[in-house]
């Protein structure tokens, strides 16, 4: 059984189990830390870096979704330094893709858009890359628009950890990374996809969508994940 530790988050005394992360303990105590790649029910990978926090005695910023709490830890989640980093990260996500909210199926229901509003980001100060990315509409029910993909890997993890198909993966490195199905074959030709739609439901943007949805009509329901993860753990006896 995990030991209970006490720590401070933004000057507030809180407690949590030593196997919990800073993000989990913060949420348990009503303290908001922004995230995009993290989703309850999936493994944490620290990909988006929006959940970075300051820990007293540590010079670098730490991703709260993968950093365990410890006795006496002092955490700050709201400094100007952190806000500056978060705004820069969201700016980079917008500049690296082709995010045109006015014609997106997820307009008004997009986590990236909501994050920009929350951070009061009213313009992008970085040059846009305008990458040339082809939409994959080969699947009978769903579509992939890589122009709106932020490489959060939620779809990769839900397909692997929950559905067990591992249809999705990331190809390439750095700025050239891209989401692919199977061995870079069209989604509609995938031999592993079960058409369950879980990847579509966990996508934070309009990158994965249901065909037939028009502008602002694509809503997502990722709240099914904790239940599925719990039932799977029970079945496996963990």
Overview in brief:
This protein is α+β, with helices and mostly antiparallel strands. Helix content is 25%, strand content 15%. The protein is built from six helices and nine strands, in the order ββαβββααβαββαβα.
Descriptive account of the structure:
- The mean pLDDT is 94.
- The strands form three sheets. The protein has a five-stranded mixed sheet with strand order 2-1-5-3-4, covered by helices on one side. Strands 6-9 form a two-stranded antiparallel sheet.
- It has two domains: 4-78, Roll (Ubiquitin-like (UB roll)), CATH 3.10.20; 84-221, Alpha-Beta Plaits.
- With 238 residues, it is an alpha+beta fold.
- The chain is globular.
- It has helices at residues 22-28, 80-96, 111-118, 154-163, 198-202, 225-236; strands spanning 4-9, 12-17, 52-55, 62-63, 74-76, 142-144, 168-171, 178-181, 208-210.
- 25% of the residues lie in helices and 15% in strands.
């Amino acid at each position: 059984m995990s030991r209970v530790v006490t720590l401070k988050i933004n000057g507030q005394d809180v407690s949590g189990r030593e196997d919990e992360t800073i993000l989990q303990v913060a949420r348990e105590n009503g303290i908001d830390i922004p995230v995009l790649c993290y989703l309850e029910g999936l493994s944490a990978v620290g990909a988006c870096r929006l959940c970075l926090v300051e820990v007293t005695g540590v010079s670098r910023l730490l991703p709260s979704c993968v950093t365990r709490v410890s006795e006496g830890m002092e955490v700050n989640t709201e400094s100007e330094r952190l806000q500056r980093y978060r705004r820069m990260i969201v700016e980079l996500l917008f500049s690296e893709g082709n995010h045109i909210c006015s014609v997106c199926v997820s307009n008004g229901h997009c986590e990236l858009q909501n994050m920009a509003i929350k951070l009061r980001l009213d313009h992008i100060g970085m040059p846009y890359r305008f990458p040339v990315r082809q939409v994959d509409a080969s699947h009978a029910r769903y579509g992939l628009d890589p122009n709106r993909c932020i490489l959060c890997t939620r779809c990769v993890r839900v397909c692997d950890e929950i559905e067990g198909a591992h249809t999705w993966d990331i190809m390439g490195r750095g700025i050239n990374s891209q989401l692919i199905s199977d061995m870079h074959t069209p989604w509609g030709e995938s031999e592993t996809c079960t058409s369950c739609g879980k990847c579509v439901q966990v996508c934070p943007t309009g990158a994965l969508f249901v065909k037939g949805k028009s502008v602002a009509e694509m809503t997502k329901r990722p709240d099914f994940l904790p239940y599925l993860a719990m039932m799977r753990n029970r079945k496996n006896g963990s």
